[in-house]
Amino acid sequence: MVLKRLGKITEERYDLKLEPVELRWSTNGGLQKVFLSNPTNVRRAIKVKCSDNHLYRVNPVYSFIEPGQVLSVDVARQNGGAKVDKMIFVTAKANKGDQNPRTLFTEGASKPMMVLPLIAT
User: Fold this and answer.
1) Domain range holding 85?
2) Which of 3, 24, 27, 61 is deepest in the core (most CB within 10 A)?
């Protein structure tokens, strides 16, 4: 998975892994899980964004992922037409003292991200 920063590939190497690499849906929707793993020794904060917030729900939206941890993210799709969307996992380095992951994501700040295609047929 390639991480991007504002459309450019970052020179910084982040070893977070996202599985699966895409989600496929029927138009009836449903619930699926995405697993984000952190095999590094650096604590990260995660923010999940989506191209269609009316059709998709995600939980958790903000979270910390500790070194060696695997974070399970629920993705629910409502009943809707066939189309392609995307879910974006934005990451930020977090310190041990950080309590609220939301505070690490300020508007306008450039952060590495991973894109997960959401394909409904």
Assistant:
1) 17-96+112-120
2) 3
CB 108 within 8 A of CB 13: no
For residue 30, is it within any domain?
yes
Q: Is 1 within a domain?
A: no
Distance between start and end Cα atoms, the chain: 24
pLDDT at 14: 56
Structure tokens belonging to residue 63: 């979270």
Confidence (pTM): 0.83
Domain count, the chain: 1
pLDDT tens-digit readout, 74-101 = 999 999 999 999 999 999 999 999 999 9
The CB density around residue 111, as the number of other CB atoms within 10 Å, is 18
In a domain, 29, yes or no: yes
Residue written as tokens 């629910």?
Answer: 76
pLDDT score for 34: 97
